[in-house]
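Re: D-serine structure - here you go.
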Amino acid sequence: MERDSLIFDLIKKENERQLHGIELIASENFVSDQVLEAMGSCLTNKYAEGLPGKRYYGGCQVVDEVETLAIERIKKLFNAQWANVQPHSGAQANAAVMLAVLNPGDKFMGLDLSHGGHLSHGSPVNSSGILYHPVAYTLNPDTGRVDYDNMEEIALQEKPKLIIAGASAYSRDWDYARMRAIADKVGALLMADIAHPAGLIAKGLLNHPFPHCHIVTTTTHKTLRGPRGGLIMLGEDFPNPWGYKTPKGEVKMMSNVLDMAVFPGTQGGPLEHVIAAKAVSFGEALSDSYTAYVTQVKKNAAVMARCFMDKGYKVVSNGTDNHSMLIDLRTKVPEVTGKMVENTLVKADITLNKNMVPFDSRTPFTTSGVRVGTPAITTRGAKEDLIETVVELIDEVIMHIEDDKVIATVKEKVNRLMKDMPLFAW
Ligand code: DSN
C-alpha cells in the first residue's frame, strides 16, 4: 500500500513543533521511546473484551500476560489492592466509577469547575452533570485553597453519595483524611481523581489518597509520563471478598462492580497496545530515575511560581505544592487575557493554556489566567536555571504582547535553548 505521506508529513511537523518549543501545558508530557514503541505495536490488532483469564475472544493468552503485568505494576506503585487499567481516559475512568456507585439523579460533590475542578466532576455538559446531580465545593477566596469547612457544610446539607477530591487546575495538596471524615459523616464514598499529581503521589512527594479514599482514578499521561489513558484503583476499604451494596441494592464485590462499569458499562474492547505502553511506563515509574524526575518536576514548579511572583504576577494561593500553578493576570496586566497570552506565546514557540482563575470575571473562552506546569519541560532536562529563563521569556512576551519583533526574538531564543535538549530522558 502507498505510504500516506499526507499524514506522516504532518506527524513529522508535529515532532518538529514538540522538539523546538517549550512545553508548559501542565497536563502534557513526553513519553519514552519504549512507551511509544509499545503503543505502535501489533497489540493494536487484538480484541480482548473482558479481563485477563476471562475474555470473550480466543487468542488472548499474550495480552492477558501484558494486562496482568500492567495491573501488578500499578498496584505496586500506589500500594493498591486492585486496579482496572482499561479506561481509555481519565474521564472514562470517572464515568465508570459514577456508573458503579450512583443511580441516575443521585447527588455527588466535586470541586467547582471554575475553581479548578474537572469537566467530569459535574459539569452540566458532561455525563456526570447530565445523568447525576452535582453539588460543588469551592476555594476560599482569601487563600485560594480548598475550603474544607465549606465542603463539610455543603456535604451535611446535601448528603451526597460520592465526594470527589482532585482537580484539573489546583496547585495545592489535598487533605484526604479530612475529606474521609466528612464522607463518613454523611455516609458518602470518597474518590480521589489524582490525574494531575499521580507521579508525585506515587513517589511520596504529596499526600497519598490511600488509605483514606475508597476509590482512586487517574490518567496515565500527565506526571505519570505514560500513554494517554486512565485507570481505577481500590485501597483497603473493599478487599475481596468484602461486599458492597450497589445503588440497585445488590451486594457485590466492589472490584466486580467497577470492572463491570468499565466493560460492558462504558467501554467496549480494551486498547491492549495502550495497556502495554501503560505497563512500560509503570515499570519506568517504579525506577529510581523516575523518583529523581518527579523530584525535579516539583522543584522546578516551586522555582517557577517564585519567579512569576517576583515579577509581580499573582499566583493563585501564592505558590504550589505540586507540578502546576495558575497565574491570575489581573494583578499585573489587567487588560491582558489568558487567550491573548496563549495565542501570543504560541508565536514564540511556548505552549501553555488559558485557564479560568477562581472568581474570574471573564468567560472560559477568554479567561483572566493561564495554567502552567513543569512535567514536560523537566522531561526535556530542565533544571532551576532554565526555569528562571523561561519565566523571563514569558514575561517579555506578555509585556510586549503586540510587538512582533520582541516575539520573534523570544522565539529565536526558545529554539536555541531547546536545540540541545533531548526529547526523551531515557
Ligand atoms: N486534559 C485535562 C487537563 O488539561 O487538565 C483536562 O481534561
